[in-house]
Amino acid sequence: MLTNELQQLQDLWCQDLSDIDQLCNASLQQMTPIVRAMDSLHLLGAGFVVKGLQNNICWLQDFPDQLQPRLQLLIANLLAELNGYLKDITDVKAQQAVLDLLEVADLPASASEEQISFLAGLLALASLKSPDLLVQEQAASQDVELQVADDIDPQLLEMLFNELPQLSEILSEQLQSRSALNSASLREAQRAAHTIKGLANMAGIVGIANLTHRLEDILELYTEAEQLPGTDLRNDLIAITDTIAIMCEAVVLQQSAPDSAQEMLQRLMDWHYRLRSEGLDSGSLDNTATVAPLPIPEDLPAFDQPEKELNGKKSTEQKLLEQTTFRVAQPILDNLLRLAGEGTTLNTQLDEEITQLRSYTRLSRDRQRALQRVLFELEQQLNEQFTLQPELQHEDDSFDPLEMDRYNEMHTSLSRLQEAAADIQEVEQSMERHIRRTSELHLAQSGIQKETLDRVLSTRLVEVKSISSRLQRVLRQACRSTGKQAELLLEGEHTRIDSNILNQLADPLMHIIRNAIDHGLESPQQRQQSGKPEQGQIRLRFILDNDLIRVTCSDDGAGINTGKVRQIAIQKGLIEANAQLGQQEIERLILIPGFSTRNEISQLSGRGIGMDVVHQQIMRLQGMLNIRSETGTGTTLELSMPSSSLMIKTLLVRVGKQIYALASHGLEQSIISLDGQLLNTDQGLLFDYQGEQYPAYALESLLSEPGYQYEQGQVHPVLLINLGQGERVAVMVREVIAHRELAFKQMGDYLPDIPGIPGLTILANGDTAAVIDLPARIRYKSIGQSNLSVPREIAPEHELPKLLVVDDSLSARSSLSVLLRDTGYEVSTAIDGLDAMNQIRKQRPDMVLTDLEMPRMSGMELTSMMRGREEMQDIPVLMITSRTTDRHRNEALNAGVSSFLTKPWTENMLLDQVSTLLQPEPSIA
């Protein structure tokens, strides 16, 4: 080809000089591909000679009057000698003929003696390689090892772990089957392979270095020749780049090389040998066509001009590129997330404390008003007493003591008491102002805390696009394994998701794609017969819906063969032969562990490890999996899960004395039992609401807690739960506390997975509460348990005896309650008999300990009222008083006091009396 081109160029210069400018332009146009071809063939000496001729012709183009017949003949002779050299580049005489002509040639830009000597060496170095001299390489197992060198620098190792996966993704993207392959993508792939090879050599990773080295050799052959690889070679290159990506991930995870690594290295060696021995025609897409250089956009700024902003503004992409990026170690980022969650929890607890302070200030205000009323009454009684009892007045009876500013000591003490009350009120008002200011600061701090939490959470957000190369690679591998054709379309690639959730979601998605190709899509022949395109289509869609991540994976295959699924389920004993199941129930049978429709084991299926693993992983993410299939049209899998692994929206409920946090996942609606009707049927309880009947479960049964017997007519909350696949149930709850967004904490590595209880959270009072995933818990408890509407029978929980201490003396009341609490009783207090009656009505105590003399209502009056009421008359009463006379004792016993204890008493005496009175009376047969 080169000799023909040079011969045409020589003939051009042998013609008559009619148009010098046209001659020069035509010559330069023909010389450009000649120089490029010579450089590709490593004919460096001949290439420099042609480049020298190009320089002379360019000069003649500027000075056409200098082109004389003698100079024209000299250029033609030089082209002839160069053509003779190319006929046999090993001929020394032909080499010397070119050099001699250059030495005597009187050209406008002549070669110097040093340049002629240099050209002599280059012409002599050129040689032809015979295919017989090429050696066919053989790949060995040690050539694909992934062992990292022991003496590698830790910083270099960290850079290696960060860079290798990214570079492997770039390499795969440049050679993907769906992209338009061109010279630019080949060069980018070559640069990526070269960079990976350099990193692998520095780390001593032989396997990756060998694969990328052979791949770079093949890409270099095509980039220098400006040609494209053919379909077979291109498919093999895509498979090899997939293997390189898997090996890069294996290095990061410190795993061994995949089984296909040695085979792929051998395939590269075979292709390299074939291309060198048979030429690029054996692997090119077009034997004659060359790749035109890519056009340069006209709107690019010149290199010698300063960078300017287009239209005075920078695009979003430019701003992102200009942002400085720092690498943060994973443990540091995890600690930041943990601290952000702890800060949110403490903020919630602080809010609770401020709420309590507000309630105490309101209580203090009420007590202050009560004190003012008492002081006013006391002052009135004192004045009346002085008026009604003249003997208390002074000797001078002519004037009223108040009229002459003569006061009794009682008036002075009362005045001081009023001043103290006023001071307390002033302190209370100051405290209220500070609490109000603290509330305002807390509100501002809550906003900053919320923004901080959002920003910290955003550090772990990554685009779905980061796993697209892995999903495309799985698709290509599955297609190669099954011989099917498919393309993967990703929608919402720029959706940002928590990296922790995305990493846990990657494996289920890859399994879904493999399952869709293996079980869903038909072979190209079957698709053609059914009127479908030979290439199947799998569509993966990501949507961020408020606090939920929704992923939809659909294919245009044959759909789920429900008849075959039912038959296999009967064979495996999963269902009865006469079981009546709907289509959705049959479709969900594929989620049972160990279920498989394959009779033979392949690389993709048949091992009984299938969709159940996907379902379990989605359940661990507190997600739901729905299946929709239509015969002949395809199958759609719908996945939904919370968008954050740190914060969780919950509904706090109380079961007995324990508080549980019900995750909002699957919780559709909260209603009151009176909004529907509770039906007791042979299949268990059903809740009828708005014309639909839902299976009704007791929350206590789901949590294995002792509970209540729910019946029609009781008033309690009812939660409607969506289990997926259109299945909904009703969960009966005794008490709903509030909706809260709380920090989510996993159980840890030392506790086994508890179905439906993924973790814990910390409440505002500092207590911990288990987070309950109701859909998962219901599915777990419903297996093997027919009726979950009735709580399990558990021995009644032992509660501490409740004692009520009634005394108007604060010190006596406090000391007595502390003693009884330390002994193991649950103690409440009252300031007098009237306060005690109010508390007894709210919560019945097991025993009352009361003083005899108290304001408003004495202990005698309290006992008489209790004995006069049927619901209180059996409560034992222990009276503690300093009155020791028989008259007081008899009066107390007549009033109904169970036992009489005089002061001073000892702790043993008191505790013995309490223990005796709490013991039940023996029944009389």
Automatic annotation (TrEMBL):
One of its GO terms (molecular function) is phosphorelay sensor kinase activity. Residues 802-918 form the Response regulatory domain. Residues 647-783 form the CheW-like domain. Its EC number is 2.7.13.3. Transmembrane segments: none annotated. Keywords: Kinase, Phosphoprotein, Transferase, Two-component regulatory system. It catalyses: ATP + protein L-histidine = ADP + protein N-phospho-L-histidine. GO terms for biological process: chemotaxis. Residues 149-251 form the HPt domain. Residues 405-645 form the Histidine kinase domain. Pfam families: HATPase_c, Hpt, Response_reg. InterPro entries: Bact_Chemotaxis_CheA, CheW-like_dom_sf, CheW-lke_dom, CheY-like_superfamily, HATPase_C_sf, HATPase_dom, His_kinase_dom, HPT_dom_sf. The modification Phosphohistidine is found at residue 194. It comes from the Bacteria. The modification 4-aspartylphosphate is found at residue 851. PANTHER family: HISTIDINE KINASE (PTHR43395:SF8), SENSOR HISTIDINE KINASE CHEA (PTHR43395). Involved in the transmission of sensory signals from the chemoreceptors to the flagellar motors. CheA is autophosphorylated; it can transfer its phosphate group to either CheB or CheY. This is Chemotaxis protein CheA. It comes from Amphritea balenae.
